[in-house]
């Protein structure tokens, strides 16, 4: 068994913070892209289609746009954090053990 040192815990904490920060940034970028990609057709359809003009009030439009942005954020952030954790896990398992 290897002993846990303060330095190794600090290193793991820094790695976890970096992984979560990467996930947040990737999720934010995806949310911005999804907002634009959803807002343009939603607002255009309300202007051009009689059915949409009648049935989609401003609250419904905002709900459509924000739902797409929220889904994009959480999906991309989750995938980024998991990919980063997987990469770091493989790196840690392939790293030679210096304590033996």
Automatic annotation (TrEMBL):
Species classification: Eukaryota, Viridiplantae, Streptophyta, Embryophyta, Tracheophyta
Transmembrane stretches, start-end: 21-40, 60-77
Top-rank taxon, per record: Eukaryota
Keywords: Membrane, Transmembrane, Transmembrane helix
Keyword ATP-binding among record annotations: no
Name of the protein in its database record: Early nodulin-93
């Amino acid at each position: 068994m290897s002993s846990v040192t303060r330095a190794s815990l600090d290193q793991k904490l820094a790695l976890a913070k970096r992984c979560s920060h990467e996930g947040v940034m990737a999720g934010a970028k995806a949310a911005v892209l999804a907002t634009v990609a959803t807002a343009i057709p939603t607002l255009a359809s309300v202007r051009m289609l009689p059915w949409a003009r009648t049935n989609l009030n401003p609250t419904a439009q905002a709900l459509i746009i924000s739902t797409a942005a929220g889904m994009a954020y959480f999906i991309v952030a989750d995938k980024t954090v998991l990919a980063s954790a997987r990469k770091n896990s493989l790196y840690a398992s392939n790293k030679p053990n210096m304590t033996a």
